[in-house]
């Protein structure tokens, strides 16, 4: 039993990798949700200088594979930063791979969440916002008391899907050298020459996270659908 | 960017001198995975909605496993994992199959896209209005005829929007092939980057090529939807 938990001595390394994967996924999620909400607002704005860049952002990012963007942004980010620090005469700043990974994934999935939120905002009846304005609510009150609780009902199924895609794409960061779960499994597999065993183990960890996420999203959906006929069970 | 494309253009588009590469290889991977995945997914989708537990259950487990884990891990299992088994190495046929990187890549891609497609089609089958099936029964269709002539065509039409999404995701997923040394667009870009250090340009060209392919695919699906889904949205035309 002890041997099973110890995983031929690679247990701690795999646990560290799993922790790294989770940290990366959650930080990228936070970044991309924020970006998604802001860009969705920009895309629906009446100001052209907000709408055009936001549309460009979602169209370009979503038409290129995430792996290509990861390599493109990850390798270019440092070069751009070097140019920037040089131009302003600042000290040399080095981005660590983890930060670069979070920024890259967050930036990519922000585009997917933007479309998600945009569709959800459009699904909220316009009368709701008009009523909120008529009651004299401020912009912020209108957003967090009226718009947000209602848009979440429409956004949740898509959010759940995109979160799972984001989570699974964290496996790609091992390609740019981050020691995540997949990298740990690969290393353990190489040293023990039992790659299949460790890869299946890594797959199982992902399976546990995706299963748990599905449960949580089901519960959230039920919560945001309270008071809607047919969904409140 | 233009100079880089002049130097590596042929490799990006068609051939690197030792075989297919770049866009041609990406399209090859995409078409084979999608065609095989599609062919497999139709019987599996029918099994997925079957009333018989022993038909439904294995398919459910299959889609659960393949949709719940990253494609990259599936690819690694096919490419490095399975070949480490003695059973595979000792069997002449399996040995030959798994020694080829392209075979392993295609196997992973087909199994992956098939799992997603099964769920899309199964969902579409469940959403067919019951009246259509009743009407077919009233006309005397039963068993495989009912499936082949009514349920499958009706489900495929309704699944088109979701299926087009999956196809685009699959096109994007083919970029993983370079990790198994298959010479797709991204592999060419990485080689160009390693030789010239023009990082942004090398990957930028790859991004542009993928973008063009995606837009072409989106355009094709728009045409397909206009043709096959017209009956669902009579007011749009």
From TrEMBL, chain A:
The chain crosses the membrane at residues 20-42, 54-77, 97-114, 154-176, 196-217. It is found in: Cell inner membrane; Cell membrane. Keywords: Amino-acid transport, Cell inner membrane, Cell membrane, Membrane, Transmembrane, Transmembrane helix, Transport. The keyword Translocase does not apply. One of its GO terms (cellular component) is ATP-binding cassette (ABC) transporter complex. PANTHER family: CATIONIC AMINO ACID TRANSPORTER, MEMBRANE COMPONENT (PTHR30133), HISTIDINE TRANSPORT SYSTEM PERMEASE PROTEIN HISQ (PTHR30133:SF1). This is Amino acid ABC transporter permease.
UniProtKB/TrEMBL annotation, chain B:
One of its GO terms (cellular component) is ATP-binding cassette (ABC) transporter complex. Its main location: membrane. It is found in: Cell inner membrane; Cell membrane. Keywords: Amino-acid transport, Cell membrane, Membrane, Transmembrane, Transmembrane helix, Transport. GO terms for molecular function: transmembrane transporter activity. Residues 23-221 form the ABC transmembrane type-1 domain. The HisPMQJ complex is composed of two ATP-binding proteins (HisP), two transmembrane proteins (HisM and HisQ) and a solute-binding protein (HisJ). The HisPMQ-ArgT complex is composed of two ATP-binding proteins (HisP), two transmembrane proteins (HisM and HisQ) and a solute-binding protein (ArgT). This is Histidine/lysine/arginine/ornithine transport system permease protein HisM.
